[in-house]
Amino acid sequence: VVDDRRTKSKYKDVVFVGPTGTFGTPIGFLQLLFGTRDFIQEGFEKHYGRLFAIPTLFQMTFVISGPELIDDVRRASDDQLSLYGSIKEGMQTDFTMEPHILENPYHFKFVHLSLTSNLGGRYPEIHEEVIAAFSELIPPTEGWTTFPAWFTGKHVVLRVVNRLFVGPPLCNNPDYNDINDAYSDALVKTALVMGFTPGLLKPIVSTFLDSYIPKTLRRAMEHIGPLVEERLEKERLLGKDWPGKPNDLLTWLMEKAPQGDRSLKAITIRLLATMFAAYRPASMALTQALFDLATFSSYISELRDEIEPIVKEEGLTKESINKMYKLDSFIKESLRLRAAGKSSMPRKVLKDFTFSNGTTILAGSTIIAPGYAIHHDARHYPNPNEFDGFRFSRLREEQDDPVRHQMVSVGPTFIMFGNGRHACPGRFLVSALLKTMLAHVLMTYDIKLEQEGVRPADKWYTFTPAPNQTAGLMFRKRAT
Ligand code: HEM
User: Fold this and answer.
1) What's an example of a GO molecular-function annotation for this chain (predicted)?
2) What is the ipTM of this complex?
């Protein structure tokens, strides 16, 4: 309490949202945690365009809003405002992954180098894996059959992304895919507990936490180990550029990671850590888009009318999916409405930082952007709470601007993929994945909700929304 008062007194020109008084911050923090008050939305509505502080424990957290402040964050250097600093804290990586992993997150760079810049070349594999994954998980039947939506979305994404990370046949190994899933779950839960533990106690608490993370890591190493050996053996026998050598994330980690970081354990941790960044948001996005397709079924025929002539002419390719403006718009609208957390683009303040409006935030604090509030702001999105599937394709046509409103474009009013130099490097892949998956579903199946007109409710984890995880979706072989 004393520390909180001392810190607050340093911010004369910053608004504090939430209860005041001696125990204001802890009370406000509990209200925020248990969802009884949403200080981020409250602050956004009352203080739009300004910085405001919300009640959090152990440090000050400031919320930015309005294009100018978001642009200030975009332009700040990494030694002032640090994404990795905030991931380190949020994911407690020193305890959940390995200490120093974010001092050189070269695995993140490999996403761009090995996947995005080579997306066209790898597209046929994506397409092949999408078809295989759907036909296995949702075999087309004449009559309607219910499938678990979240389980299906998750497993399609795990399999297709792993095709690009480790290749076949491991990408379709149920045990390996479960490990990826379980590892992510364990990371989130352990990080949550460690986040609430005061600094001095962290090393002690971490030794008491269950051994699930190391156990899961060992299980993953049992899969990756033989694959690494197999590739090294081929290299010994056939030379460095052996025929058929995969250009996947594993190869990049084996060959381009710093010398001291090429042990099986180091490679496996980086693989799992990259999968953590990739598959959770992507599988949530797929599941939500499928729920939207089933809920707003009037879009289906117009989407098919767009997709079919393109596919007839060119097939499904990296280039042809770029022509599917309406499909892009439908998925982007689903992301806008459902996927942004209340707290986005977190940055740890490493050096005192002065915004363009003159407000200075001291080192040690955290800055976040209110993603959910921004994406539901009527100033930028008329009827913001309504699903308007062709909102963005209309804008692309009306403004004759094919780039600005596409899913992968980032800016201060669409921060689903962040903004600036750290904007998600996987977004080009995600856009290709989601469009291919939805186009495949539209062309192969009919889809509907289990209960007509009732979209399964989202689940919120404090700041983060997730699709309903128990509901099913009904599919049958396309009849029309
Ligand atoms: C719908 C799916 C996805 C969403 C919504 C999403 C969103 C984000 C966001 C918000 C950030 C932080 C940006 C910032 O704070 O400025 C980020 C970073 C990142 N994402 Fe994604 N992402 C998705 C899928 C993926 C996929 C499929 C991959 C990998 C294949 C990926 C890899 C990364 C990496 C490596 C970073 C760190 C960037 C850096 O080091 O600067 N993401 N993502």
Assistant:
1) oxidoreductase activity, acting on paired donors, with incorporation or reduction of molecular oxygen
2) 0.98
